[in-house]
Amino acid sequence: MVFLHGGGQTRRSWGRAAAAVAERGWQAVTIDLRGHGESDWSSEGDYRLVSFAGDIQEVLRNLPGQPALVGASLGGFAAMLLAGELSPGIASAVVLVDIVPNMDLAGASRIHAFMAERVESGFGSLDEVADVIANYNPHRPRPSDPDGLVANLRRRGDRWYWHWDPQFIGGIAAFPPVEVTDVDRMNAAVATILRDEVPVLLVRGQVSDIVRQESADQFLSRFPQVEFTDVRGAGHMVAGDRNDAFAGAVLDFLARHVGVR
Question: pLDDT tens across 52-68, in order?
Fold first, then answer.
């Protein structure tokens, strides 16, 4: 099972989910997307969705069989494009975590604004980072130990900055991920995945501002083969908010369609 994180996250976002599926016999693989975590930044400023998907394809070449792809937000878009356009048949199943082609653009703008706000100025301390995150996600408790945030940051001089390449979100990348707003292209990718009889699950955070109920309903009406789980009490970061419910839903879905690999 290959986990693909969202924009501005790292592979560590999947820590508890990966542990939960490993306990059930799955091999869990987590990836830092280009420009994120410990992966290289693109010297060409290439953060097109097709480039993320191509990187993932190269990783999968070194894995046995057909993995199940679990993608959140940006990672979900990359999974759609990889399994439905770049390399159909590469996945045994696809789990879309709080993302659909017709995502709520106002919610996406809110996330972008949060990520872009401190691109240049950074943070004076880890406590300041914790406060900013708590204000952005008031439904989550403030991190009790700010030192745990270091994995999401980089140090330069006496200030902390988000770990990801500023080009990715700062509007200065030569090749930004514009495909995420191409609803028709993403819908076509999902249609190809389903036409190849690859099972698809949509896991929505019930209080998400990215996949609102009407967006989920439209997606499920368009693709009735897609299974659906609504996770109570979770926002856009479903696995982080309710990992127990999230991991259980994914494991149950894969047990019905794929079995342990």
Answer: 999 999 999 999 889 99
HSE-CB of 261 using CA atoms within 13 angstroms: 18
Residues 227 and 136 in one domain: no
Task: Assess contact for 34 and 58: CB atoms under 8 A.
Answer: no
DSSP 179: G
94 lies in the same domain as 212: yes
Residue 150 domain boundaries: 108-169
Q: Give the three-class secondary structure for 250.
A: helix
pLDDT 10s digits, 224-233: 999 999 999 8
Model confidence, pTM: 0.93
**Could you report how far apart the first and last alpha carbons of the chain are, in Å?**
8
3-state SS of the chain: helix, strand, coil percent to 5? 45, 15, 40
pLDDT, tens only, 71-80: 999 999 999 9
